[in-house]
Specification:
Structural class of chain A: alpha/beta
Strand order of the largest sheet of chain A: 2-1-6-5-4-7-8
Largest sheet of chain B: 7 strands, mixed
CATH topology of the largest domain in chain A: Aldehyde Dehydrogenase, Chain A, domain 1
Number of strands of chain A: 18
Distance between the termini of chain B: 52 Å
Structural class of chain B: alpha/beta
Helix content of chain B: 25-40%
Number of domains of chain A: 2
Radius of gyration of chain B: 21 Å
Oligomer: heterodimer
CATH class of the largest domain in chain A: Alpha Beta
Shape of chain A: globular
Helix content of chain A: 40-55%
Number of helices of chain A: 16
Number of strands of chain B: 14
CATH architecture of the largest domain in chain A: 3-Layer(aba) Sandwich
Distance between the termini of chain A: 54 Å
Number of helices of chain B: 11
């Protein structure tokens, strides 16, 4: 495996040179929300949104919007001034290990760390698709154009070797994205003794719809809901951590659930989403597995892109973790009956038609089990600086307390 | 053995025309669906939950099917555990999980009888001296026992005076082959090997050895993946064997552990034909409706053999096309199948990285 760095185009780099560049970052942190950081991310937003390639890739559009200066200002404002006697500063040098496949994650992870004032090393996958290569190139170029190439290094290197150990030993912060196995394996390599390593493990997410609210909604709203649900499920082939795998209906859904799936099929068609043959066959197999084991009582094959199993009991997440448009469906009498399905792995519950007090009750009901986000359907994959219950900005910075001032 | 199977085996192998075959298979397949529905609870739950319960089929294409992956993930058995005589396993391709197929005495006997019936069609009624294009280590060493070993062992019962063309470390055993050919002394013999083994471990090392195999009949099987990578198709394969060894009776077959005993043999038209008690349906990968001859799609296999496990109708992960129906090439009838390859694997991207050794 060749060690590469983006400067701004990817090219081979000597490992000693890479370590030397990392060393040079050690004392180059800035204060959180430095104007230069915000300006660079704003320029990145403009570059992404102006490119036709991004316009055809909804997750890139979402990324571009998230990085807009106005959006970042709101984010900064939400932190407010430091408390008296607390001075918030950057942590130092951060290493980001993004998942191989959900490519926008590395940008969010990096961008929040940029705002926090850190210098960053981002380890990209050796093999990536055209879009991802394009995105990496764009970022490296914007960084260089803003004279910040010395503070942000995009590279790829082999895991498991001396180089990884040497690099990790310099890190004040490490963000490991990519599931249980990756967190275990990558987390085993020590970083600085006073450093902080944060892992984002396997997750499992749901959606919940109040049948009565759906029945009362007009055509336009129902279509909007189907659009939102489409984004939640299909953006990353239903393999995003926040993508719902089970859809819960609260109340009698017998008259509305088919209407919902039919509208979803319309969106799938309009977006020209097509499941591959092997995914279609795998989903049929997975659906029949759920029937054979008694986890489900019914399998409905709407199309190759949408299979729905009627679950008969709380299931392990791998039962519904097929991806590619494979949904468990459960009808509940009240929202709190979702509780047995919620575990430590649960991340997002995307909702529709629940009133604010019902959402609060739901949060209370799942509190001791798991779950981190209740978001409207359509926002399940929207990045938030509070991720898996981790307030990223807090963790990506440290504080100096000032006494006697 | 169900009555329709008995009747199918009484006819000339591979001779049944499609209309007669459909008429024979349809009620018998429905009977098997009901049989498994009553005796295999997971199968019953699948039929209830997906097909809306058991019903009479109006055509063979309406008989419900299971994707072969189910034999990896579920224990599918239509007999008591104590009645199981052999459990066949096959890794197939992909994630390392293993298919399990449960045979009781009766199904095992039916399967052997059906296989003998098919092989006799190309080998004749006499058991012939047999050259195995492999090593005896594949079944002698339990550590190495695999689908390949089981395949070799299964075919060996249809030959006698076995010789092996490879040493246990897969080195070509020129002396063993020469001794075998001396012993058969110009009389007919039978050779068997997996397609890739025949090519890489027999044809390639021996192509200039001057062996005369013109009295032999080679039966071979196995995935064409590696052969395709080497850009060797069936035509090149046959031409090369003829050129190097004068071997002209070369017969490919297609089958899978989930329908053990039911082999699609290569006829004189170079197409693969189902035995009388079996059939193939090509399905459209979007609508899953049956496709007419000439259209490529996913292969579904039907067979009357599986009684102790619900494997009478399975959806494979292979692509193929039915080129002819009742072409009557030297008496071979029914559908003439051409295999295109495996359904391409596609990996779904996601937040969880797949961790492989050396990369995470």
């Amino acid at each position: 495996m060749t060690t590469l760095a983006w400067t701004p185009d990817p090219g081979p780099i000597d490992e000693h040179a890479l370590l030397a560049r990392t060393d040079a970052m050690t004392f180059d942190g800035w204060l959180p929300f430095d104007g230069r950081s915000v300006a660079m991310l704003g320029a990145l937003s403009r570059t992404i949104l102006a490119d036709p390639r991004a316009r055809n890739n909804p997750p890139y559009v979402a990324l571009g919007y998230w990085l807009r200066p106005a959006a970042l200002k709101r984010l900064v404002a939400s932190f407010g001034p430091d408390q008296a006697g607390i001075f918030r500063v950057s942590r130092g040098v951060a290493l980001h290990l993004p998942p191989t496949n959900v490519d926008t994650i590395f940008v969010y992870s990096w961008a929040v760390s940029v705002l926090a004032g850190n210098c960053n090393v981002v380890r990209l996958a050796q093999e990536s698709d055209d879009d991802t290569r394009w995105l990496c190139g764009v970022i490296a170029k914007v960084v260089a154009d803003h004279g910040q190439a010395g503070r942000h290094l995009f590279c790829t290197y082999a895991y498991g070797g001396d180089f990884e150990a040497a690099l990790c030993a310099k890190m004040d912060l490490r963000m490991i994205w990519g599931g249980d196995a990756k967190v275990r394996a990558a987390g085993a390599v020590p970083i600085r003794p006073d450093g902080l390593s944060i892992g984002f493990p396997d997750r499992d997410s749901f959606a919940i719809i109040a049948a009565e609210a759906y029945a009362g909604a007009g055509d336009e709203e129902r279509n909007r809901l189907a659009e939102g649900f489409f984004a939640d499920v299909y953006w990353f082939d239903q393999m995003g951590c926040g993508s719902p795998r089970i859809l819960f209906w609260v109340g009698d859904a017998s008259n509305v659930s088919n209407d919902f799936y039919r509208r979803l099929l319309v969106v799938i068609d309009a977006r020209q989403l097509r499941a591959t043959m092997s995914v279609a066959i795998a989903k049929l197999g997975r659906g029949m597995d759920a029937l054979a084991s008694g986890d489900a009582t019914q399998l409905r094959h709407w199309s190759n892109e949408l299979d729905v199993v009627e679950l008969s009991r709380p299931v392990r997440s791998d039962t519904t973790g097929q991806g590619g448009g494979f949904l468990g469906q459960v009808t509940l009498h009240s929202a709190d009956e979702i509780v047995p399905y919620v575990s430590r792995k649960t991340q997002t519950i995307a909702h529709y038609g629940l009133r604010p007090n019902e959402l609060r009750e739901l949060a209370k009901a799942i509190a001791t089990r798991g779950g981190y986000r209740l978001v409207p359907i359509g926002d399940a994959l929207k990045f938030s600086p509070d991720w898996d219950g981790v307030r990223l900005v807090d963790h990506m910075t440290r504080v100096i307390t000032i006494g006697g001032a | 053995m169900i009555e329709a199977l008995r009747r199918a085996l009484e006819r000339g192998p591979y001779s049944l025309r499609q209309e007669e075959r459909d008429a024979l298979l349809l009620p018998a397949l429905d009977q098997l669906t009901r049989h498994h529905y009553e005796r295999c609870a997971p199968y019953r739950r699948i039929i209830d939950g997906f097909s809306g319960g058991i019903r009479r089929s109006d055509s063979v294409s309406e008989v419900p099917y299971l994707p072969v992956s189910l034999f990896k993930t579920q224990t599918l058995r239509s007999v008591d555990p104590e009645a199981v005589r052999v459990t066949l396993t096959s890794s197939g391709t992909g994630n390392g999980s293993v298919s399990r197929v449960f045979l009781d005495t009766e199904t095992s006997a039916a399967q052997q009888r059906a296989l003998a019936n098919s092989l006799m069609h190309v080998l004749g009624k006499q058991r012939l001296p047999m050259l195995v294009i492999d090593t005896d280590a594949v079944f002698k060493n339990p550590q190495l026992m695999s689908a390949r070993g089981a395949g070799v062992l299964g075919l060996m019962r249809y030959g006698r005076a076995h010789a092996f063309s490879l040493t246990p470390d897969l080195e070509p055993d020129r002396a063993a082959v020469a001794a075998f050919l001396r012993a058969v002394d110009g009389k007919p013999f039978f050779a068997f090997g997996f397609t890739f083994m025949v090519w890489a471990h027999f044809y390639e090392p021996f192509k200039d050895a001057g062996f005369d195999l013109s009295r032999g009949t080679l039966i071979h099987s196995g995935g064409w993946k590696t052969m395709n990578e080497r850009a060797v198709g069936n035509t090149e394969f046959k031409a090369a064997l003829k050129r190097a060894f004068g071997l002209t009776r070369v017969c490919n077959f297609y089958g899978m552990v989930e329908q053990i005993g039911s082999i699609f043999l290569e006829g004189p038209d170079d197409l693969l034909h189902p035995p009388n008690f079996a059939d193939v349906i090509i399905r459209d990968p979007v609508s899953w409706n049956p496709l007419p001859p000439g259209k490529e799609g996913v292969i579904q296999l039907l067979s009357l053999l599986p009684e102790s496990y619900p494997g009478h109708s399975v959806l494979t992960a292979d692509l193929g096309v039915v080129e002819t129906v009742d072409a009557d090439a030297e008496g071979w009838n029914g559908k003439g199948l051409r295999i295109i390859g495996r359904v391409p694997e596609a990996e779904l991207r996601g937040c969880s990285d797949v961790i492989a050794v050396g990369e995470r």
